[in-house]
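Why does this matter for the project? Reviewers at the last site visit asked to see concrete outputs rather than summary tables. In response, this paragraph embeds two records directly. Each consists of the residue sequence and, immediately after it, the corresponding structure tokens. Nothing has been edited or filtered.
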Amino acid sequence: MSCLLMTAAVKAQTTAPEQKIKDLNIPLITPVAPTANFVKALTVGKMVYLSGHGPDKPEGGQVVGKIGTELDVEAGRAAARLVGISLLSSLKKEIGSLDRVKRVVKVLGMVNAEASFTQHSQVMNGFSDLMVEVFGESGKHARSSVGMSSLPGNIPVEIEMIVELK
């Protein structure tokens, strides 16, 4: 590997998540209030538990539709990325700075899909790829991707996440 490529790789690994968000022009949003008697995020010791979030659009509202009928895999992947942005937004509100994240530990991805759909993990890659973009190796996580016959408000993807703090 050339010195230039090695330097770029080292810089990518050491760029703080808050700077990475700016560099990638990822628009964090103001988290919407919970719709019932629960919290969006809860910190216990060095762990942050984030409730299931949906694909919030930057301009408001949510992406809706069932994967495999109304939306294809690529649209599902884009929706999963939006869920990631929503989760990062709630996480930042909870802890103040994404630079406090040690690692993304565990993720549960629920995909609203028609019965014969089998590409749940490909949909969830939209979320997982975003976490690695922002946190580097610390963004790699244990993950479950499961299909659901429906989700609240007909959203295509709901994701919950557990994060460890420094």
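We now turn to the second protein, recorded in exactly the same manner.
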Amino acid sequence: MDKNRCGWCKGDKLYEAYHDHEWGVPVKDDDLLFEFLVLETFQAGLSWITILKRRENFRVAFDHFDYQKIAIYPESKILALLQDEGIIRNKLKVRATVTNAQAYLNIQKEFGSFSNYIWAFVNNEPIINEVIHYKEAPANTPISDAISKDLKKRGFKFVGSTIIYAFMQATGMVNDHQLDCFRYHQV
């Protein structure tokens, strides 16, 4: 018997596995938070499945999302990434990833961890929504607006409110699983 899932992931095994095991699970690990931030940056203007299918390519291309390495990428590495057909070869997004890694390190210095910084926006507890149909979930909220504004002030790129809200959903800062989804009460 099939499990009842959120409508956005039904019918694609990769999407379903991501939904069943990752989406909406609270993430407090700085390494994984940075990975999601990078993936959401590249997702801007594209479908999430496009990014999900290339996730492992991104992992290899960006040194397993090691923000300490990424923060000091030389121009030669950036140019090599722009030739890598396994990832999205968007010059602005690739350069934004390097800039964001640098800003990420600054936040860690200031707050002790990126997790401390980002989770403070939701008082260290996931926001539990009551989504009946996935298309009813918001694209952004006043909290994602505030996070976006603060990240931009700190030098981050490609962190608009919609991208940040998707990041919040992915990392469990908000639970937007549909009420009838088997994961709603599990995350």
